[in-house]
Structure formats: structure tokens, C-alpha cells
Amino acid sequence: MGYASQHFYNEKMQQGASARTVRYCHTLLSNALAQAEKHQLVARNVSKLTALPRETRKEMQTLSLAQVADTLLPAIAQDRLFAAIFLGFGTGLRRGELLALRWKDVNVSTGTLQIRQTLVRITNHDAPARKGRTQLLLQEPKTSHSRRTVPIPEECLAALKQHKARQAEEKLLLGQAYHDHGLVFCQADGKPIDPRNFLRSFDRLIAQAGLPPIRFHDARHTFATLMLELGESPKTVQTMLGHSRVAITLDIYSHVSLELEKKAAAKLNAALTGRQQFWVAVGLL
Fold this sequence. Notes:
By secondary structure, the protein is mainly alpha-helical. Among the domains are: about 1-50, no CATH class; about 65-210, Orthogonal Bundle (hpI Integrase, Chain A), CATH 1.10.443. It contains twelve helices and five strands. It is flat and about 75 Å long.
């Protein structure tokens, strides 16, 4: 069984699966075997004998505040997805969270939104081959930390209001043909936006603004990096991103943390060396 597991992992890697996917498969298999071992259905959990691929973190590409505010947003202001892109950079929402957001999750009076569901594409094993093997599904967030309340920047909120007015016109135009799911960001007929199509649109808008290619997930990285650089506490950023622990936030954005620590040390140094008592104490006066 151990050999079979290792062969399966190796085969998945050769087929192009990521190390993270293989590790996820291993977790499922290991947990199942652990239960089987507990109930004496197998002699031991042989998945422990396998060697797992090392997971490497993709290099993040972040935009500067000037690139977002002065270049990207003005260049895409007339696009139908402007508010979605703006909100992505302004809140750090994941793609699935953004595309599953409903108007009832947005509180205009308090300037906040709530993450209650996410849009994912899953394998549909019951579908006939000619109709495709995947389907879009709205489901609850995986963790309690992902279910959260996020503040909306004032300018993002203004963009959302304009977007809602535009959406109301589309709804009126289509009438009975409009599929109203209450989604904030959807197709012109109200149906959910396919996450893959959204990424294609994002790539197009980034190119339209003349910016270097980045992933939509890098909008999330940009948000977190800017928040930390502006002096926001890692704990606050952790909560807004929906990370389970602040250690995860600090690990991902360690490059920012190091720069903040250097600035803090420089401030302390300036405070100390600006006092005559300090120089006397170290024997330099």
C-alpha cells in the first residue's frame, strides 16, 4: 500500500499537479488510514512511509500604491468590472469570495461587507460527458476565520454604488431573462461569473493599464503589503485577510515585517541618540 501511495503521488506530479494538491491528497489518505488503523482494519498507516514533494510558495508580485491609484484604476474606470477590481485591491478578498458576494452581504450604512460564501468550480461526477465534468457552486467558507466582516474603503463604496445603478439598468433591460441571484458581481444576465473568465478579464485590464502581468491573487498580496507599510498592525491585517493565525500573515509578508522592524529600530535609535543623557551614559560626552 505504501508503494501504491508513493506511485500515485509521483504520477500526479508528472501529470502537472502542484505539490500542494499532492499534499492535500496525502492528508485525505492518511486520515482515512489512521481511522482504519484505529479500528484495526489495517495493520498500520503505511502513508507515513511515503515521501512528499516540498511545497514552494509562488513569488508574489505586488503593485505600489501609485501603480494602483494613479495607473490601474483610472485606466479601467469605464470597465464593467471596475468596482470588482477596485474592491479586490481595497479589501484583499479572495477571488471566490469576491464573485460570491451578494448585495445583502454589503452594509452601505456601516461601510462593511460580510464574507458568508465563496464561488468554486467543482467536478460534477454525475454530469454526462458531453455536458462537461465541472460545475460552479456557491458554498460556505472552509474555515470560521474566512467568515468575517471586512471594512470597505470609502472610494470603493462609492464605486459599488455606481456599479449597483449600472446593474439595475441591465436588470431592467433584460426583464424576465435576468437570472437574479442577488450577486454583486455577475454576468450581464445575472448569472455567476466563471472564475476562469474573471481571471482572463483581470489579465486584460492589467495589460490595458500598461502594468506588468500579475495574478489576481497578487491584488490580495498588494492589499496586505500596503496595509503593513502604512503602519497597520499584523493582527488587524490577519483578521481582514481571514488568516487563522497572525503567524501565517507574518510568514507570508515577512519581507514587509523586516522593513517595519528596521524603521522601528531607526526610530528608537533617533529617540535615544537625541538625548544628552544617552551620550553621557555611553561615555561619548
